[in-house]
Structure formats: C-alpha cells, structure tokens
Amino acid sequence: MNVGNGGAGRLEDRPGPEMLDPQEADRLRARDREQQETDRLRAETREQQEADRLRARDREQQVLDRIERVRRRKAHVREDRVTLAHGAGGKATHTLIEAVFLESFRNPLLEALEDGAVADGLAFTTDSFVVTPLFFPGGDIGDLAVNGTVNDLAMCGARPRYLSAGFILEEGFPIADLRRITASMAEAARIAGVQIVTGDTKVVQRGKADGCYINTAGVGTLDRPVRLSATAARPGDVVIVSGPIGEHGITIMLARGELDIEADLSSDTAPLNALTDLLLSACADERVRCLRDATRGGVATIVNEIAESSQVAVVLDEDAIPVRPVVRGACELLGIDPLYVACEGRMVVVVAAEAAGAALDALRSHPLGAGAAVIGRINDDPPGLVLLRTSFGGTRIVDLLVGDPLPRIC
Amino acid sequence: MRFVDEYRDATKAQMLATRIAALCEPGRAYKFMEVCGGHTHTIYKHGLEDYLPETVTLVHGPGCPVCVIPMGRVDDAIHIAEQPDVIMTSFGDMMRVPGGKGSFLDAKARGADIRMVYSPLDALKIARQNPDRRVVFMAIGFETTAPSTAMTVLRAEAEGIGNFSIFCNHVTIIPAIKAILDSPDLRLDGFVGPGHVSTVIGCRPYEFIARDYGKPLVVAGFEPLDVLHTVYRILLQLREGRSEVENQYARVVPWEGNLKALRAIGQVMELRPYFEWRGLGFISQSALRVAERYAAFDAERIFQIPGGRVADPKACQCGEVLKGVLKPWECKVFGTACTPETPIGTCMVSSEGACAAYYNFGRFSRERVKEATRR
C-alpha cells in the first residue's frame, strides 16, 4: 500500500496513521523508538564527551602545575661526568652552573648570573673561546675573543676599557697562525676602543688541546647610571633584536665542512659597545630594562632567561624575527631552529614600550643595528615562559634547549 | 623562501580550517594518527592544532625511529663502542637515547670514541681515514634511511674497506602500523600517512589498512599546509563513506615507491624473524639485519654483543603513548621524573618524540596559549 512520501518521517508527522495496516504501523513505531533511542544516546555521548573533555582539561592543568613545581626545584646534576650537553648553553649548562659553580662560589654579585658583575662603578667579566675551526668566514678565534668580552661589558651598560688575554697553546701550533690570531685581536681591540693590558701563556703537550684556546677577561667603567638586569622586564615592554640572527652559528657549522653545504655567509662577530652607547644615550631613565648579546643558545635562550628572571611571559612574533634567507635555508635543511643558533654581534634589548621608537632609531643609526626590529613583547601570563606566534598562524612554546641543537635524521 | 613559504601560508591555512570544520559532523569526535615523527614535529613547531576543531585529535604514532629503539640495543651498541680500537658513529638524535646503562653521550664522557655523523657515508669516510681502527655505524631508521645504509655497505664492499661495519637497527613501518591496528585498546578514525618512508616504499603497502580495517590513510608531506590538507582529505573520505589510500605528497612520493632503493635494501639486508620495539614489544618481521652475504660488514657478527633484554622502566608508558592510547601528559611520569633532560622513555628524547614535542612546544593548553598571544 501507499504510505505517501513520508517513508522517512515520523509516524505522527504523517496524515492518518490509522490508515496504515497494523503491521506497517508497528514497524514504523518500532523505527521511531529506535530513532528516539539513537538521539538520546547521541545526546548522552555528547554530554559524556563534554564532561570527559572538561575532566581531561582539569587533569591536564594538574599535570602542568606538577611540571612547573618540578621545574622550580633546586638544580641537581644527575650525571657523574661532564658531557658535551653541559657546554651547549641549554638546560644542562644552567643546571651545571647553578648546582656546581653557584653552590660553591655563592655571593650576591654572582647570583644575578648576568653577563658580567657590576660593583663600585666597574663592570667585570670573562669568557673562554674554543671554537673549531680557528679561522672562518668573517673572523677568527682572535676577534671573537675580544668582541665576546667587549660585548659582555657593553651588555652591563659599561664602557669597555681593559682586557686580559690568556692563551693555551698545543705543542706544534704554527707561530704564523698565532700571529694571524693576535693581529686580528689587536685590530678588534682598536675598533672597540679597548687595550689588552695583561696576559698569560701556557703550552700543553700535543693532543692535550685543540690548537689554541683563548680566555679574555675585561673591565669596563660605568659612565652613566643604568640598572640593566634580566630581572627588570615588565609587562608591556617590547623586545628588540639588533639585526638578523643565526649567522655566526651557521657559518661555523658550514666552515667545519662536515655538511658539504656551501653558502655565501660570514660570521656576524662585532663589538657592540658603540651600539649600546647610542641606545643608552637615546633612552634615558632606566627605560632600557635589559641588554643581552645572543651568543651560545641564541635568541631563544636569552629570552627564556629574561622570562624566567623577570617572571614574565615573552611573546615573540615569528614573522618579525629577522633571519637572512641563506641562514633560514641552511636551518631548514638541517632541521635546526634559527632562534637557537648563536650570534656574536647581535643583542636582545628589552625596552619600555614608550621608548621603543627611540631605541629602534638609535640602533638603526649605526651600521651594526641597521637590521634592528621589534620581535615581541612582554606579557604577565604565563610567567617564566616564551611563546611564539608562528608564521603559519599557530602558537607554540619556545623552551630552553636540552643539549646541542642536533640535526634531525629524517 | 621558495618551496617552503608556499606551504606555510596562513591565509590558505585559514581557508582549509574552515573547510575542515564544515566537514566535521556535530557531536562526533575524530582521532587521527600521524604515524611519522616528522609530522609530530611539524604539528608542534607551527602550532598547527590551533587550526583544528576541538573534536579533531591528532594522535602521535610510532614513526620516530629513535623512539622505538629498545634499551637493550642501546646497551649493545655502547658495548661495541667500548671495545678496543672501535670508533662508533651515530646520527645526532641517537646520542641522548638512554639504555640500561646510560646513553652514547655518557659513554663518550667515560672515554668511548663516539662521533656524530650526518650520513653513513661520513662514517665510511672516517673508516677510510682510520685504517687501524674499527669503525661501526649505528644504523637506525625506517625504510627512509635503510637505503643509504645499504648503499654505504655496497660502496664499502666495492672499495674493499675492511674496517667498516654497521650495527643494524633498521625497522619497517608496515608491521608497526599493523600492530597498532590490532591492539584492542585503540580507536582511530584514520591515518596521516608517513611521507618520507613512502618515498621509498610507495603507497601500495598501505592498501590493506583501507581495505581490511576500513580506515582512510592519506600519505602526507611535511609542511604544515600538507598536514592540514591531509586532515581535510581524511575527513572528506569519512564524510563520503570511503576508506582509501590517497597520496597528498605526490610531488615527492611516487605511488610505486623507489624501486632502486628497495632493491638496495633487498640486496644488503633481510627481515629478522622478530624484533623488539620500545613500548610495543616484539613484532614479527618488523626489522632488518645484514644478509649473510655481507656478514663482513655486520657488527652483530663481528663483535660479541651481550644481546640482553632490558625491560622498559615500569613507570614509563611509552607504549601507550606510541599506540596513541594515552596523550603524553597522561603518562604517570611525564614532566616530573621524565623530562627532556632526564628522559626515562625514548618518546622524551628526540625532538620528534611525542612527549618531547609536547613538553617543548605544547605544554600549555591551547586556550591559555591563545589567550596569552592575542595581539
């Protein structure tokens, strides 16, 4: 018989159910009950899913809180020997410094863990250089050793004045190479306006060192009243980087020749004291909160230190971070994030929002700061964390690296 | 940058996200597994989950070659590295993977000569340069890296380099996927198929997944738009009631795979009857070893290896994470006893491991991160 076009509808929706034969009516009733049951189950499932989701979120939050508690625990070295990860500038380095060095040497000046110590109108810092290869496009271990220490003093807001130079040389090291290194140190010192006024030499047996290691220490004078500190960042401040990042680290990786990649790239090693001088003159009254040169561990490590020390969130904008295409290309090939790659002539500046324009103008007025850019800002939540708005339009956390940035295998 | 930026376009991503949302049936939750660790890395690195509706969950699969190496094999490798005159060579990812007695990094600190290389050919070069040393390459990875290992063995034979061998830990992807499909505690709606592996094995080996298990699988590229597009195509299949193998990554992956590479694997290696996978247990015919003919290049035959089995730590739930039953943070030791600095399970070691990726990039709930990064 004809049941009209309501075959798919509910029994009640259709005219004259009494006109159906009893069997057909039963069948339709049964189907309606089934449909109601399905709807009920669906609704229940939805509720169940929603409840599960909420419970899951609660649990997730608990786990996250637990992680934060663990992360705040006192640093503790678990290894019984030093591994290369302890020297890579990431978490392992931090742990080693806090659990071994800080534990032994603890004092208020050291505890700040800034680039140098500041006391009695002086800034004082030291740095050792063990780079391989010794000579690379754009520089060598010599200018690196001078610029590194000059920059650490500049980051304290000081005017670098006097440097010491200690050499550890391997038996058999060519004197010609040593002359080349000292010549570039002298040139770097001249450019930075510092004098190398004391030094030391040790020679070790062949095989006990890798050619030439250099340590430099430096003293600078604080000519203007500044209070720069990684603890000084406040919500609302902006984060500036003084130029394209990652050039030194990638240059060194390529110069080692293990990757068989060639690129037109040279190290960015340079003294930053002229740049910090311009910057600090342009922005008075502590509006520059913090200066850091982005060496080992790169910009990501520096901003993590700032976020942690100031208990603020740093929000970076991937699109705004200057990276030269050749560096980006090499990083893509190697599966390395340029944010973690070392620079030797770039700094991260945290500055009050109202001074951002003046700071950028000051930086850009110098050739070394021509590529300066605002890369992010400081927020209050979540404290201690660095977040990145990716170019793709997503978001993620930028954490400290655990060890060396290792190329991925596939 | 050309050939990269095109695949990271936020406008296109937004368009895809809208279409994905439209394809999702209200009230239905979807779980897709990305088999390959490379995809896990992409998803977290670019914050891709921000584009997905809450009802779509991506589950991280077993395709991180470092993550599935059992602890006993790491101990065996360290044992070889500590033999006289040995130079052990390894990819960087492997350096931190913990065995029962520490990692390669720890063994190196104790005095073993372990060097990081970028390809097995680099290891062969070290062998050439050090004729009085025995150079071993720690071969790991799926069918993606197995051909280059095989080619290196062939080259070593052709050049008559006698001081080079490989410690073969190559695994095959299909048995692992099958093990996951057969595990009773799993509910998946589809697969984001591995891209790099498929450049070698092609798309045909996945057909049983669509045919016998009724799950769509779309082989995907590694840029974020690739993954998003793949999610869209899986959802489209589900919406249309299809379950097929599709190739989203056709610009790189040929349907039939790379026969030359497969021949090289077939020539130098053979299937092991069974192999232990970290977290998943023993899976039959899931790994490769050096074939008899190339025994002279097989570290397992050259060195006496202890071959001990080290049980996974009890607290570690890598298996459940690898199978997608647990989210990384649901593991009992996640983020407390097990962190990237002190990994208990391998998922926490490699940046492709589900746990490490989650810990490093995604620790906070999406809402909180979105809130905090709002312009």
From TrEMBL, chain A:
Matching InterPro entries: HypE (IPR011854), PurM-like_C_dom (IPR010918), PurM-like_C_sf (IPR036676), PurM-like_N (IPR016188), PurM-like_N_sf (IPR036921)
Organism domain of life: Bacteria
Domain PurM-like C-terminal: 234-382
Domain PurM-like N-terminal: 115-221
Chain intervals with Basic and acidic residues compositional bias: 24-59
Family classification: Belongs to the HypE family.
Protein name: Hydrogenase expression/formation protein HypE
Species of provenance: Streptosporangium fragile
Recorded name of the encoding gene: hypE
Automatic annotation (TrEMBL), chain B:
Pfam families given in the database record: HypD
InterPro entries listed in its UniProt record: Hyd_form_HypD (IPR002780), HypD_1 (IPR042243), HypD_2_sf (IPR042244)
Alphabetical keyword list: Iron, Metal-binding
Keyword Metal-binding: yes
Keyword Metal-binding: yes
Family as reported in the entry's similarity comment: Belongs to the HypD family.
Name of protein: Hydrogenase formation protein HypD
Species whose genome carries this gene: Streptosporangium fragile
Gene name per UniProt: hypD
